[in-house]
Amino acid sequence: METLKIRNARPRDLRPIVAIYNQAIASRRSTGHMDPFNTDQRRSWFEAFDFKSSALYVADTDGRVAGYGTLTPYRAGRRAMNRVAEVSFFVDFDLHGRGVGKALLAHMIRQAPTLQKDSLLAILLDINQPSVALLEKFGFERWGHLPGIIDFEGRRCGQYIYGRYVRETTAL
User: Fold this and answer.
1) Nearest CA to 55 among 77, 75, 71?
2) Left (φ > 0), alpha (ψ -120 to 50) or beta: where does 161 sit?
3) Residue 144 placed within a domain
4) pLDDT tens-digit profile of 38-82?
5) Which residues, including other chains, have CB under 8 Å from residue 18's CB and lie 6 or more apart?
6) 10 is a domain residue
7) In whole angstroms, what is the distance from residue 119 CA to residue 109 CA?
C-alpha cells in the first residue's frame, strides 16, 4: 500500500464509503444491516456529519478510499451524554491487515477531544474478532455484552459494548 492519510470525508467519497459498508453488510460479521445501500440512500447520513458534534474520516491511499471511520453522538439529544461518542470503522476487504483500521482508530481517539468527547464506545457484533482485537490494542475494555440478540435469518450472535476514556473523567 502507498501512503496512507486520514482526512475529513468529502462528498466525492460517498460512493466508495457506501461500497465499503456494503462489503461489511455482505460479510454478516461487521454490522446488523442486512440489505445493501445505494449512495442516494446514504446521502442524508453523510450530510449529517458536521465536524462539531460528529465526524466522518476516510483513510486515503493515493486518492483511493481504503476505509472510513465515524465519531457519532451516543444517544443524541440526551445532554448528560453529550461527551460520549460512538466510534465505528470499516476497511475495504481488499486492504484488511494493512494498518488501515489501526490508523483510523488512532486518528479518531486523537480527534475525540476536538468534538468535546471524553468517552468512546464501540458497539459491535461479538463474532467480529478482528475489531475486538484492535479495540483492545487501543485500550478499549469490554463494558457489556448483549448475548444472542442479533438474528441473521436464523444465525444468532450477540453484541459487545467496548469503551475507553479519552481523558480523565470525574465520577459522581
Assistant:
1) 71
2) beta
3) no
4) 999 999 999 999 999 999 999 999 899 999 999 999 999 999 999
5) 37, 38, 39, 42
6) yes
7) 9
Cα 138 to chain center, whole Å? 14
pTM: 0.94
Cβ neighbour number for residue 33 with a 10 Å cutoff: 12
Could you tell me the CATH number of the domain that includes residue 37? 3.40.630.30
Q: Would you say residue 115 has pLDDT above 80?
A: yes
Backbone angles phi, psi at 117, to 5 degrees: -110, 135
Q: Of 131, 2, 116, which is closest to residue 69 (Cα–Cα)?
A: 131
Task: Quote the strand ranges of 92-131, DSSP E.
Answer: 119-125
Query: What Å distances lie between residue 79 and 60, 65, 95, 146, 164, CA to CA?
Result: 34, 34, 38, 25, 20
Cβ neighbours of residue 48 under 8 Å, at least 6 residues apart? 54
Q: Which domain holds residue 61?
A: 4-120
